[in-house]
Design goal:
377 residues; alpha/beta; Aspartate Aminotransferase, domain 2; Aspartate Aminotransferase, domain 1; 2 domains; eight-stranded mixed sheet; four-stranded antiparallel sheet; 15 strands; 38% helix; globular; binds pyridoxal-5'-phosphate
């Protein structure tokens, strides 16, 4: 928390707006939409709820195909299952680590030949960096398939100067505790289309018909954000830019200290991409470092340093066994490579310099025998 949260929460208490309606919600939605440069936003109870609503707005139902990035958190794809849809997973490419336009094109051509095009494509922007949206949007426009941007990890990042989450038909964000800004739990759905925004609010509040009594013609959800948490969100939004600056600094220091080690490479930031570096993620070449990423994570955790593995691709998850998947190139499985070699380092906006030095020292000790030229920090 950063300071103003208490003031906004107190306002909610004083005005007695302790409900999933109230002035903070309206203000948070309009402030968020204007930050992003979109027509409107709908504050909801989680990022997962926002994806569920987005798919509902696109009328995904039983048996409908939905393409989704394979390298992501399971929350990106679970809502496809809620609706009885069938995910088809798309691999990453090496430049962005996100959805490979080459794999997407192959999947679309195949689906078109089968006369079974997907009803939506969920593009995930991982670890603060956007997917190659020009290529992806161009392909999806060609086949007239709506795009949902899962920007849960990329709030504030830019793609060719445009904010993440504002490029597709719908965008979703998360304010879970681990995200760059948080309301402890919460999410946001954004769009430039008024019909989507109105329908999302309707569905998120139990789909109540306009009537003087309780009448319902459609199935709805209880997905609205509370006015108290929206107050927290408003204060957090004010410190977003500062946090992006801090996270990029955390990344810069790690990179400077570790990039000279043979066999270590950092998540790239490709031309046109401006990542928030929500997390600093790097790859370990097991052959050169004589340590696997999994061994490194374990060693960190044994030393009370919270390092994490990269997301396990969804097409490898037992939950999605037998699900169709398109690799980057035939025989070239990028997400699997990134999963095997990737480590997320502690990257909090409030990570102290001393703590970061401890992480760096431990990292160096782990790959001791494979030192390149030592960098000074
Ligand atoms: C965190 C996250 C979500 C889910 O957000 P919740 O608010 O936790 O439901 C969805 N997609 C990705 C990529 C995430 O990292």
């Amino acid at each position: 928390m950063n300071g103003d949260e208490k003031k906004y929460v107190e306002e909610a208490f004083l005005s007695n707006w302790i409900a999933p309606v109230g002035p903070h919600i309206d203000a948070f939605e309009s402030e968020f939409a204007s930050y992003l440069g979109v027509k409107g936003a709908v504050a909801v109870s989680s990022g997962t709820a926002a994806i569920h609503l987005a798919l509902s707005l696109l009328e995904i139902g039983r048996g409908d195909k939905v393409f989704c990035s394979t390298l992501t958190f399971v929350a990106s794809a679970n809502p496809i299952l809620y609706l009885g849809g069938e995910p088809i997973f798309i691999d990453s490419d090496y430049e962005s680590w996100n959805m490979s336009p080459i794999a997407l094109e192959r999947a679309l051509i195949d689906a078109n030949n089968r006369n079974d095009l997907p009803k939506a494509v969920i593009v995930v922007h991982l670890y603060g960096q956007n997917a190659k949206m020009d290529e992806i949007m161009c392909l999806c426009r060609q086949y007239e398939i709506p795009v949902i941007e899962d920007s849960a990890e990329s709030l504030g990042s830019l793609y060719k100067g445009i904010k993440s989450g504002s490029m597709g038909e719908l965008g979703i964000f998360s304010f879970n505790g681990n995200k760059i800004i948080t309301t402890s739990g919460g999410g946001m759905l954004v769009s430039n289309q008024k019909k989507f925004l109105e329908k999302a609010k309707f569905l998120a509040s139990q789909a109540k018909d306009v009537a003087s009594y309780y009448q319902h013609s459609q199935m709805g959800y209880n997905y609205r954000m509370s006015n108290i948490l929206a107050g927290v969100g408003r204060a957090q939004l004010k410190v977003l830019e500062e946090r992006i600056f801090l996270r990029r600094n955390v990344f810069r220091l790690y990179k400077k200290a570790l990039e000279t080690i043979n066999g270590v490479s950092f998540m790239p930031e490709y031309t046109g991409s401006e990542s928030t570096r929500w997390l600093t993620v790097l790859l370990i070449d097991k052959e050169i470092c004589e340590r696997s990423a999994a061994e490194m994570v374990e060693s960190f955790n044994n030393h009370a340093i919270e390092a994490r593995a990269v997301w396990k691709p969804l097409h490898l998850q037992p939950l999605f066994k037998g699900t169709q998947y398109y690799s980057h190139l035939p025989g070239k499985h990028v997400a699997e490579d990134l999963f095997k070699q990737g480590i997320c380092l502690p990257s909090g906006s409030n990570l102290s310099l001393n703590d970061q030095k401890t992480v760096i020292e431990h990292f160096r000790q782990c790959v001791n025998h494979s030192f390149g030229q030592e960098a000074v920090i």
